[in-house]
Amino acid sequence: MNILNCIQNGDTFLLKRINMSLKCKSLDIIMPLATYLASKVSLVIFCLFTELNPDPFIHLLGVKCTVSLILSTVVAQIFKKSVSRIRPFLIVNNLNIKKIGIDEYSFPSGHTTAAFTVSAMISLFYPTAIFLLMLLACLIGVSRIYLGVHYPSDVFAGAILGTISSFIVFYLV
């Protein structure tokens, strides 16, 4: 068995464990809401609010968030198109899924990428908030698995990509 098959099998196993073991009515409400915190609409509102803020520190946070979101989104889309990983709910049987708006491919998770991009950038500006922000970003990532639209490795890759993008923009731009 080659390495990619091992990764896929482990990913599917973890996906099923997380997706099925967490299933409950409360999370059926909470997880879609968590996912939408990293939606395009939420991110545009956040970036506009911070960029238009008269406080120069918050304005700079908004500009750097916007630039890092653009960077991480472009890189994520390049990966999505080149890897072309099919979403799990289309090929894994017996998943608990919620129908939500999604694009074609799974790797990496765009919502998780965005969540970690914003959380990491805000944490760089406000280090005391890192625990709460990373917890929220992790919740968004887990929500993607809970909803059956991503494998754990999609979420992990999104977390890494988002975090790295923010560090690059924070320190180099």
Automatic annotation (TrEMBL):
Keyword Repeat: no
Segment forming the signal sequence: none
Membrane topology, as annotated: Multi-pass membrane protein
Keyword annotations from UniProtKB, A to Z: Cell membrane, Hydrolase, Membrane, Transmembrane, Transmembrane helix
GO molecular function: hydrolase activity
One CC-aspect GO term: plasma membrane
InterPro entries per UniProt: PAP2/HPO (IPR000326)
Subcellular location: Cell membrane
Pfam families assigned: PAP2
TM region positions: 29-51, 57-79, 124-149, 155-172
Primary location class: membrane
Domain Phosphatidic acid phosphatase type 2/haloperoxidase: 63-170
PANTHER family documented for this protein: DECAPRENYLPHOSPHORYL-5-PHOSPHORIBOSE PHOSPHATASE RV3807C-RELATED, SPHINGOSINE-1-PHOSPHATE PHOSPHOHYDROLASE
Protein name as it appears in the record: Phosphatase PAP2 family protein
